[in-house]
Design brief:
Length: 86
Amino acid sequence: MSMKRTNVYAGPEDLAIIKEAARRRGVSEAEIIRQGIHLAAMANRVWDEPLFSRTFEGPGRTPSRTDVRDAVVDAVRRETDPGTAA
């Protein structure tokens, strides 16, 4: 990926946090800053398409905890039960 150089201003507290994170992770401070820029860019991106399709088939409501738990239990059962065909 081609990169371009730019200048940014950061407060001393933020720079100290970046320096510590880079040291702990064993990467450069620039890498920490690049990752932060990428996260900020993605968080503010406007997508051309909606995240969810309008053709989503479902009950049209937020599932309850019981619905989610039952779906997970069923999925785990299908994965672990050798007699169940997927």
